[in-house]
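Bug report (template v2)

What were you trying to do?
Predict the complex of my protein with manganese (II) ion.

What happened?
Run completed; filing so the output is reviewed.

Input:
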Amino acid sequence: MPLKKNYVPAAEFLKNFKGSILLASHENPDGDTVGSALALYLALKKLGKDITVGCKDKVPYFLEFLPASRDYIKLPTEREFDLCIIVDASSHTRLGVPVKAKKFMRIDHHKGGDFYGEHDLIDVEAPATALVAYYLLKNLNEELIDRDIATCIYTGLATDTGFFINSNTDADTLKLAAYLVKRYKVDPHEVAVNVKERNPVRRLKLLSKVLDTLELHKGGKVASIYVLKEWMDKLGATYEDTEGFVNYARSIDGVEVAIFIIEKPEEGVWKISLRSKGNFDVSKVCEKFGGGGHEYAAGCKIDRKYSLEEVKKLLLEAINL
Ligand code: 5GP
Ligand code: MN
């Protein structure tokens, strides 16, 4: 498979690294950060490394089927690590909590962000960090990859590409997915059922409320939806239950950009998710508000001193469609 990035230095760095390592997933973890971190965790454990995997938030129910998902520790922790590897995030601030480490490393596919040194492995052309993790392991020692590790990688690839339909899906993505299925016997159906078809009833009830908030703007090119904390509390729902809601807004014929606004009073913010059908770069919009992401999927946070209507207005002004 054609690779533009040199994966060898990061592989050598990890192979030779002697101290304790924390693999850290970003807050509100998704399939890519969890799949990539667990793939690396399982492989580095096989190599006998002193390795821990952690996240501020718990692994969402739809990823609990992944091998070793129960090994995640809750961050922050008092422990200081020799190395913290930030997985699928552009900077340590995306972890949502402080981490004590002598050294940082980034394994990722986001543009821009913070750099921690020569050993960083950031491949902005990769559709998912899971692909970066795969080639890193291939360069480290291909023998380490087994069915469990391949399943984690496949799940990262599948979730970040919206099960191989988002605009980041290309021939190399499909080839790698097919290879993981053929060579390691990853079961695509098992992954899909676990990720997509274990919805709790509360999630669908919440979705019905959220879809009621749908508004179209800019002659139908932008769609917005929102969720209030009070609705989640009433249904016993949490933020993980809102994963993917934004795609319903994007799915409307003629919509180029979808906005999903999530009320997060405990952080004093509105969490924003933007999605594009591919012709408008939503990461540029989120960067204006201190966030980031990709052309087709990006996020940011906006202070709750702004009302919901003000937040919509701010976003619509920034989306120059
Ligand atoms: P989501 O909308 O699912 O939270 O995130 C979509 C994409 O935007 C992901 O690639 C994610 O890493 C990125 N993203 C989401 N929120 C933030 C944020 O607050 N800051 C930055 N830099 N990236 C974000
Ligand atoms: Mn990702």
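What did the reviewer find?
The first helix runs from residue 8 to 16. The chain has two domains: 5-195, 201-318.
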